[in-house]
Each structure stands twice: as structure tokens, then as C-alpha cells.
Amino acid sequence: MKQVNATVAMFLSVLLVSCTTGYRPLGDSGGYWDEQIEPTNNRFTIGYDGNKWHSNPVNRKERVIDLALLRSAEVALENGFKYFVISDSKVYTEKTSLLQGSLPSNTTSSRLKRINTSETYQIKATFTTVNYVDLAEDFRTNAVMQSGEFKGYAVYKADLVVYTILRKYNMDSGELMPNFEQYGNISSSTSQQAIETIDRVPTNPQ
Fold first, then answer.
1. pTM
2. pLDDT digits (tens, 9 = 90+) for 9-62
3. Cβ distance 32 to 50 under 8 Å?
4. Nearest-5° Cα angle at 32, 27 to 36
5. Distances 154 to 66, 106, 202 between C-alpha atoms, Å
């Protein structure tokens, strides 16, 4: 399994094609998507596609990862689960090149190289999650699976993930699904502590 790398390169200047990456269902400008892995009832594939940019948006990678994590937590809560692990993950930048204008029928390969192209970049994150209604006390305390198939994998508490990412990006709970309130009270840990915990713990420590 590939470890999610949330390193941010703050020095890179980028040109935005649309609005800042926000939390929304998948559409033309990106967003989240998810599907249940049959025949199980506690495993899901969850993804988040960032906005399209005119230059490589390295400094948006952490946000796309966090929004995929947020959707993972929301799916867990919507299905009655309190905890989840990310059993597999993939984060990559998709590059698309489009030729500008129409090409004459007699275009040669040498002339083709000189025709302007429009390039866009889009960061995508895909997680496979395994969800749990409850876990043993030692698992909850250490936030790492101590045994079994996912020994060494980080354990995420779904409501804490929601709380943490909302605070980290100053998001309003209204940006989540309308039934957000059914989740009950979000854990009241210090926001900075929670953010540091989410950012520090890799999916599967190597």
C-alpha cells in the first residue's frame, strides 16, 4: 500500500481554472464520489477529484487528501460506523493536454509540434476504507491497529476527522450532507491537537 504523502510545496505559484477546491459531490469541476464494495457492508471506495489548474497544483495536494478523508468519515457515519482504516490509497496528478483550434488536413508532424496546446492538471485521491462500529480500548487509545489484517494501520475516529477538517479549513457544517446533524456532538478535542494528529499519522506506517 502506498503511504499518503501530504507534503506541501508552498513556493509554487499556480493559476486557478475555477474556484478554490471545495467540498461537494463530483461534477465538472471536481468533487467527491464513493461506492460500496460488494458483497461487504463495511468497505467502500472513496475518491476526491480536485479542481483543474493550468500549472501543476502541488500546493493543493494536502487539501484534496483531507477532503477525501472527510468524505471517508462522512460515509462511515452515514452507515452507522464510528471508526475506519484506510486499507489502500492512491494520490496522483492527472495531466490533460488539449490542442487549441482546428487542424488543417495537411498538418505535418513538424508543424503539429508548433501548435499551441492547453494543459490542465488535476489532483485525485482514492481511498479504500474498512469501517468498524466499535474497537477495543487499546486500539482507540493508540490510534493504530494492534493486531489482525490491518496491524500497524492508522485508526481514524470518524466524528473527530469531521471536526478536525472543518476547523482546519474553516468550513461550515452546511457544506456537508444535509443530515450532518444526525451524527450528534462532534468530539471537543483542541482543534490544533486534532489537526496535528491527522497530519502526523500515516495511513499505514512502514
1. 0.72
2. 222 222 233 345 578 999 888 999 999 999 999 999 999 999 887 777 777 888
3. no
4. 120
5. 15, 58, 7
